[in-house]
Amino acid sequence: MEIRNIDELLKYVYEKNPIAGDYCFRGQSDSSWKITPSVHRIKPKGLKRYQTVVLEAFLLYLFRYEKIKKTHLYTNHEVEFLAMCQHYGVPTRLLDWSNDILVSLFFACEANLDREGTFIICDKTKFKRFDFNDFHTNTVEPQIINTHLINPRLRSQSGCFMLWGNVQMTKESSETYDLEEYCSQNFSISPLIKIKVPKNSKKQILAELYGKYGINYDSIYLNNVFSEFVENEYKVFKFIADIITNDLTSNTNLSTLSPFTGDFAGCENLRSLPKEPMRNFYSIVDNIIARLPKNNSA
To answer: What is the DSSP letter of 293?
Structure first.
């Protein structure tokens, strides 16, 4: 199926009775993309599953580091901190969804105007709900997170998340999975519906979203002073995540965080990680922060 305008999409979705079904939605501007979290989409090949554990460990160490500010974060739960990181461009094993049909349609159209987009409908009732008490427990299946984060941009996007499992799906495959692959192996009827958005319809849909509903880049991303301030503060996490990723995927010793990646050899999940980083990790982090431009520093 494909949709060429908003009315076609709304008629289709409401035939599914979204009030009864408890759906969430996702837009991808390139239909060739797999449905996987950002941590597995890091170029050129994405992080391997065990490498994502290392990256997540570093982020959680930084979460507990009081010298780094975390503006507008009122939670003390690790997964909600990761949700904020994900929302501001830090790669995590959280997959973004929205409870708003039109917001997701915007994301299906906003970029790659020369390529077909995809609008994805997900029946949340078919997935396990994330238990905040079990974050460090081994899980295979993706889980829906009912986060209570209060963030202006997250609110404008009606954002919600799906947490990827931190162990392999099958004994035959030690790496992560695409959500479609997971659903085909675990459901007789897939809880996902994918709808094509033709490339030659994207501009018309974007014009319609703005003209009828006031939805455009500024309304989605809340392009205001406060949003820019919070985004700049979270750049410190993205900057350090980039260093860790480079250390994990490069054979070059960069004399930054490289000495610490070896400390996690054999760690396949969060339960097997050290509670605190070894050696002088935080002093190295301080030096990294000091090198950031002032408006990006924590």
So the answer is: -
**199 is a domain residue:** yes
Q: How many structural domains is the chain composed of?
A: 1
Q: Give the number of other CB atoms < 10 A from CB of residue 135.
A: 16
Side-chain-facing half-sphere of 59: CA atoms under 13 Å: 30
Residue 277 lies in a domain: yes
Distance CA 256, CA 287 (A): 9
The predicted-structure confidence for 149-163, as pLDDT tens digits, reads as follows: 878 888 888 889 999
CA distance 47 to 54: 10
Query: Of 73, 82, 33, 80, which Cα lies nearest the Cα of 53?
Result: 82
Quick one: DSSP state of residue 140? -
Annotate 27-84 with DSSP letters as a single string.
EES-TTS----GGG--TTT---HHHHHHHHHHHHHHHT-TTS--TT-----HHHHHHH
216 inside domain: yes
Domain range for 87 is 6-296
Higher pLDDT, 291 or 109: 109
Structural domain includes residue 101 = yes
pLDDT in tens, 170-179: 656 656 788 9
Q: Are strands 143-145 and 128-129 parallel, antiparallel or unpaired?
A: parallel
